[in-house]
Amino acid sequence: MSEESELINQPVEEQAGRQDGHEQAPAGEVDEIQALREQLAQAQAQAAEYLDNWRRTAAELSNARKRMQREAEEYRATAAVRVLEKLLPIADDIARAFENLPADQAESEWVNGFRLIQRKLEQLLESEGVSAIATEGQRFDPALHYAVTHEDAEGYSEGQIIAEVSRGYMLGDRVLRPSMVRVAK
User: What is the pTM of this model?
Assistant: First the structure.
């Protein structure tokens, strides 16, 4: 075996102890090398710990940002739903007012102005994704309709909606307010 391969296979302390072939290094140098290696190992372990902590913190921050964005979107959606729910009775009142409009005032400028307001309100609701729930002639669906009465009615099968008492609305797939209906029994 060559001197180099012997040196590779020897423990560190023995390698450090050799100089120019076979001389031993002073014990102080061996201790110093060993101390430096221990310090290196400690520094590497500490660096690995810091890296791990940094990665966890970065992941936590990313998750917190995503959670905050999701909560903000939910808050906006909830706020929009509350405002839309408050507008629905106004739309109902305007529709009832037009249903009970005296015939002699049907074409007055004042009434036409209110019709424009009603159209704007309807367009606003539509632009926000609000749609009316279909009722007349439909089968009663407890997820969409609220039965006010169950009555005998000719020409209607059991469970079929006879008439709408109050219009219901949906926002996308969500029921804002169920339709109040009369149902055949």
Answer: 0.59
